[in-house]
Amino acid sequence: MDWITTVDHKKIAVLYLIAGGFFFGIGGIEAILIRIQLMKPMNDFVSAQVFNELITMHGTTMIFLGVMPIIFALMNAVVPLQIGARDVAFPFVNALGFWTFLFGGLLLNLSWLMGGAPDAGWTSYTPLSGSEYSGTHGVDFYTIGLQIAGLGTLIGGINFLATIITMRAPGMSYMRMPMFTWTTFITSAIILFAFPAITVGLVLLTFDRILGANFFDVAGGGNPVLWQHIFWIFGHPEVYILILPAFGIISEVIPTFARKRLFGYSSMVFATILIAFLGFMVWAHHMFTTGLGTVANALFSISTMLIAVPTGIKIFNWLFTMWGGQIRFTAANLFAVGFVPTFVMGGVTGVMLASAPADFQFHDTYFVVAHFHYVIVGGLVLGLFSGLHYWWPKMFGRVLSETLGKWTFWTFMIGFQLTFFVQHFLGLMGMQRRIVTYLPNQDFDLLNLVSSVGAFLMGVGVIMFLVNIVITTRKPVDAPNDPWEDGRTLEWSIPSPPPEYNFKQTPLVRGIDAYWKEKMAGHTEMTPAEPVGSIHMPSATPLPFVMSVGIFIAGLGLMFSKDDFGNAFMNGLFNNYIVVIIGLLITFGAMALRSLYDDHGWHIEPEDQDEKGVRT
Amino acid sequence: MTTPHAEPVNGKLPHEPEKATLEGRNKLVGFWLFLGGETVLFGTLFATFLALRGQTNDGPTANELFHLPLVAAATFILLVSSLTSVFAIQAMHKGKRNALALWLGITVVLGLGFLGLEIYEFYEYVKHKEFGMTTSAFSSAFYTLVGFHGAHVAFGIMWIGLIIGQLFRKGLTVVTAPKVYVSAMYWHFIDVVWVFIFTVVYLLGKVG
Predict the structure, then answer these.
(1) Whole-number CA gyration radius for chain A
(2) Cis (ω within 30 of 0) for the bond into A497?
(3) What's the pLDDT score for residue A568?
(4) What distances in angstroms separate CA A614 from CA A499, A504, A611, one per listed residue?
(5) Interatomic CA distance for residues A437 and A281, integer angstroms
(6) Which is nearest to A306 in space by CA: A328, A280, A327?
(7) Best interface-test mutation with B: which of A93, A94, A158, A228 has the largest number of B CBs within 10 A?
(8) What span, in angstroms and rounded, lies between the C-alpha atoms of A31 and A58?
(9) Which of left, alpha, beta for A496 (phi over 0: left; psi -120 to 50: alpha)?
(10) pLDDT for the residue numbered A598
(11) Do A596 and B162 touch (CB under 8 A)?
(12) What is the per-residue pLDDT across B2-60, written as a single tens digit (0 to 9) for each?
């Protein structure tokens, strides 16, 4: 009950981590099944229909329900601490964001149990995803489930923007913020300007499928390419939403374990902003073979290649940070150092794909699959592993086992390279993406087998990480404030896990890497910016949960509004949109309650401010 | 912030009560951000409409459908309602609760008038012009764009209505003032979107 009503960002971080980990596991199992099917030519492990459902759900689950929540988990756990805030700007909205995401994700994954998952690919291109070619409820689960989960992400993004704008400690100017906070800030801005586009796109597709509208139906005057534009105008910024937080994590971990400040801090900030801006300028590079014409292709080629410049700046800054540092290869740092060359490889294949004529050859082959797995798995997932090993003591008060962490790194890294390195060549040899099987003796056989073996190794790596978590959870909560002993930013200046109010006294920030600066000045803790006093806290509330349940009910009601259930009562409920109305009434009722009853919160008095955070 | 509904100091509210507390300032920042997202949402809808406005699929065209006097009346009503919400905020800055509630009430009534006209317009199209959601790509885009705006108006009416109720129950305080302020911001946003709809949908539909 405590977990359902919580508005504490540290607990919401744990919720995000559990839910994200759960969906990440589902997405991983889907990936393993895909690789089993492709292990040998002419395999019939799964049917073609199930294979389509697997690839669609693997992509959708991993991106929207797997890695994004884990990113949000780290943001929630770390960003308020890094800026010296006692709380986020909107604790209630933060909780609402989590529950909305969770119920959207549950709705999407219910599809496996309710007559088939979406099967039109994660990009859900029309007309394949229209009612003519996807007559079952599969794609409805995609449109409505993603819509609800996207809403949660959007309000989460707004919350972080407002938090970073308004809740910084005295002295924490923008150009003194830690890099992870910066990337969170920029990522949230991308979320704010990208997600409404997919909201509209999904609404249009829903209207096409459920109300019989003609947006993408050529027979009614619609235009399928419109879907591609709307999807990628969101979808390309989305991949930067994924990678920028990883950049932030790497920019925290590498300086900590090199015992040097981040090289080129201001150029890092500038490069992040530039990448975010350019991320909105390149969406049509996903559509080179759609037939937009040579001028459009040329322009989008150039703008795409431009992104290599700020990215290159970042790569070299990380290398220069390590240069001459006293590097310690802890598990977290192994992941961070492994990230750099892997991500560069993904970036280089990206530049190759950015060349429109070459893309006519690469398009829809395994070369593309290799490219985006290098940047999303080799970039983001390694970054997340790094961040989880790095901040685990701060979140839970227990240090993860270093030995197991290193084993995790090597199995995962070797498995990853085996899986995806060979896919470059599969693609160049012409193996198509999203294909259920292939003929023998086309030189595909061995490489696919290698790829599948690598996938199993990655699975073993993830299992090792889970074992590590289980073992660590049985240890006592004994992590010191600064378990790595070289912590540079504010989150290491308070207990692990932090008390509910984070900072007993708001710290005074005197420069970049505020905590390190105090250490160098001979202090053991931050200089406070205020006297000890009573701390105001927001109250826990079940309303976010209730609101999300309402939206969930409304979504299910909308999806089945055209079905015949074979009995009059159910038909009456669904076909007259009564279920939708009930769901919306629950949600709007909860909103009204929230508005009408002021929640004054409560106070923690100074005499009660002397314990660590109490955690699971 | 000891008592949330702080009694006005010396019987007087601060000049800008919506910015008097951290919560209030956060609310304003967060709402500006939210409106940024809404802008992208409507931008995408406008782009969709512009892409499909010529695809009438042998159904009614924009030129045949639109009756400009009706739309002009709706536009006038909505623009005036924006003005009355400005008067409401000015009354709030002077600390006059009753004047504030009155102006907000006028805003809501004007909003209802606008919504009534829009419902009447849609009803006419569906009933007499055989122009429904499924008629053509143009009709789908028209109803989605204008309907989204209408839904925003309806939500705004309910929201501001609730806030008027709160003003009488709790009075004008540093807690209710930010709520009034952001709802007025929302109302202006709806108004700006309508100006674009009036231009892109109706005027272009008549001449383009």
Answers:
(1) 24
(2) yes
(3) 83
(4) 8, 16, 8
(5) 36
(6) A280
(7) A158
(8) 6
(9) beta
(10) 78
(11) yes
(12) 444 554 555 567 888 888 888 899 999 999 999 999 999 999 999 999 999 999 989 99
Mean pLDDT of A560-568: 81
d(CA A216, CA A205): 8
Interface-testing mutation among A92, A204, A205, A214, with chain B (most B C-beta atoms within 10 A): A214
Amino acid at B50: L
Nearest CA in chain A to B141: A215
Q: How far is residue A82's CA from residue A249's CA, in Å, rounded to a whole number? A: 12
Interface check for A223 against chain B (CB to CB < 8 A): the answer is yes
Q: Which residues of B fall within a CB distance of 8 Å from A214?
A: 55, 57, 134-137, 139-140
Higher pLDDT, residue A162 or B11: A162
Number of residues assigned to chain B: 208
End-to-end distance of chain A based on CA atoms, in angstroms? 14
Q: Give CA–CA dist B123/A608, Å, rounded.
A: 63
For A272, A566, A581, B69, the CA distances from A569, given in Å and listed in that order, are: 56, 9, 16, 46
Name every chain B residue with its beta carbon within 8 A of the beta carbon of A226: 48, 51-52
Cα radius of gyration (chain B): 20
- Cβ neighbourhood burial of A277 (10 Å; 0-12, 13-18, 19+): middle
Structure tokens at A394: 């701060």
- The runs of H, that is alpha helices, within A280-355 are 294-306, 308-322, 331-354
Residue with token string 């409404």? A196
* Gap between the Cα atoms of B161 and A379, Å rounded: 49
**Which residue blocks in B6-130 are alpha helix, DSSP H?**
22-52, 62-65, 68-93, 97-128
- How many angstroms separate the CA atoms of B185 and B173, rounded? 18
Is the pLDDT score of B1 beyond 50?
no
Question: Which residues on chain A are in Cβ contact (under 8 Å) with B55?
Answer: 214, 220-223
- In angstroms, the CA B128 to CA B57 distance is 18
Q: How far apart are CA A389 and CA A387, in angstroms?
A: 6
Interface test with chain B among A205, A208, A215, A591, by most B beta carbons within 10 Å: A215
What does the pLDDT average to over A491-505?
92
Question: Which residue from B33, B56, B140 is facing A213, i.e. has the nearest CB?
Answer: B140
Token pair recorded at residue A294: 């040579």
Helix (H) / strand (E) containing A602: strand A602-604
Among residues A100, A81, A105, the alpha carbon closest in space to that of A8 is found at A81
Q: Tell me the DSSP string of B108-151.
A: HHHHHHHHHHHHHHHHHHHHHS---TTT-HHHHHHHHHHHHHHH
Whether residue A395 contacts residue A13, with contact meaning beta carbons closer than 8 Å, is answered with: yes
Q: At what angle do helices A91-110 and A543-559 cross, to 10 degrees?
A: 30
Q: pTM higher than 0.90, yes or no?
A: yes
Q: Quick one: tokens of A541?
A: 């509330």
Residues 44-83 of A with CB under 8 A from B: none
Phi, psi of A512, deg, nearest 5:
-65, 150
- HEC string of A238-273? HHHHHHHHHHHHHHHHHHHHHCCCCCCHHHHHHHHH
Q: Does A221 touch chain B (CB under 8 A)?
A: yes
Look up residue A113 and give its DSSP letter: T
Rounded to a whole number of angstroms, the distance from the CA of A551 to the nearest CA of chain B is 16
Percent of chain A with pLDDT over 90: 88
* CA-closest candidate to residue B156, choices B68, B31, B22: B31
Residue B13 confidence (pLDDT):
78
In angstroms, the separation between the Cα of residue A161 and the nearest Cα of chain B is 8
